[in-house]
Amino acid sequence: MNGCQGVDPKMPLGTIETRTFPAVLTPALAMERLNSAISELKSDPTPSFDSGIIRLQDASSNGSPICNIPNFPRCRSNNKLKQSTGFAPSSSTTHSLAVSSRDGAKTCSDAVKISWLTRSMGVLPLITMAVLLKTMWFLSKECPLIRAYGAIRFDGRATVSSEWEAFGSFYFIVPQVEFVELEGSSMLATTVAWDNALSWTYAQAISTLQATMRQVSSIVVELRKDVPITFIISNSHVPGKKSWDHAVNRALQMINRSNSALVKVVLARSSRVRTTTDIDPLTWLAHLQVGGENTYQFCLQPPDAPAFIGNSPEQLFHRNCLSICSEALAGTRARGRSKAIDLQITLELLSSPKEHHEFTVVRESIRRKLEASAVCNGVFIEPEKAIRKLPRVQHLYSRLTGKLKREDDEFDILSSLHPSPAVCGFPTEEARLLIAETEMFDRGMYAGPIGWFGGGESEFAVGIRSALVEKGLGALIYAGTGIVEGSNSFQEWEELELKTSQFTKLMKVEVPLLIPRKGESGTIHSN
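Structure tokens predicted for isochorismate synthase:
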């Protein structure tokens, strides 16, 4: 993140407003209406304010005209009630992200399916900020759909590796252009932001937006939902199996020491997969959407950088005014091939002492963090322990709710809840230090917060079940597992395989070997 030196983030913007136009029949008409409105804004070259942000939005009755824009930095997210898609025209100053909540009733009106089409606003530090506080400066309850989307590293103190360099310690943007898919309709919206103190004038903002609109309207194609056949050339793990066994056994030795405070540590693995053809992150994510209920799907891609995609089942927190909720998620089992087998596995998960211990550590740690930080007046847990079933795995689950003492507590909430014991361990600092000593790769945004801030609402998921996808380099697939007393390195390795299978199932294990048989020139046979 860059910029915004010399600007007082406490100074209010000159104007913040949303202008909504009557619904039209098609997205094309909505595009035409917005272009006209932008031209009208341009006709006033000297606005009354030195800074401001204006959102223009127009609805149409057609809900799915824009699915994919090729060769653009882009983003997509999905959950059980709504779907999000985002794109950004490719240039050195563009950024893109979209992340949606899982509770449509609590976010955009009665929306059950939402998409964002995004492009950053040039070099304006509104988009590339050195401090998150600057992002909040552009948000207001009066314009709740103006949001800042982004992600934060798992460990901001760790050295940033080359593959994560474009993301920085954290990465947030406010969309310039959004495409919102509603149930049976859609909404196209644009945002104009300017600040003379940042040498980003109203005229520059308008001109950049018009250029973006021309790109968006000229390059639109249908998103592929089928995954093209991709063969794996190579697949390597960090750590490898032998090193993993050593790391788990070392962690268990520390946990079992009588003078050790460590109760749980989450160790992760990075798997580099190289493929015969480039992987389209949005195609992967669209395929995951098929069974994506109860998950946050996201894609974050800075300009000229890899795409960070994921299919996370874990909510870090959701704040709506003074109300807040969080989730405890721990313990993992595969789904059964039949209802009877699935029920048997569920009962085993519910009755396992080891899984119960791991889950209780996570749940009670989240409760204590909310209470001890003085963020909440009280915390309520319901259910105490239940099962969350996903297409390939199932977990122990609990929901925690409370009332905030103040509405401007996002940073207190983030610093209190992250890192979650579900992705770091307990106690937090002891687990973090062991992770830093043990893991030989950079987690980057994996297991970090990913979500959005709004004027009166915010929501973040935990960036797990994720991968970093880069053109020409295949993918880095991340997964972690909690180590507690009673853990077994072999079983934990199998759990890693289970968690990464949502990605590896989209690829063939090996390239077919095609060799001409002797005496049959011109004929190729597969051995």
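The first strand starts at residue 15 and ends at 24.
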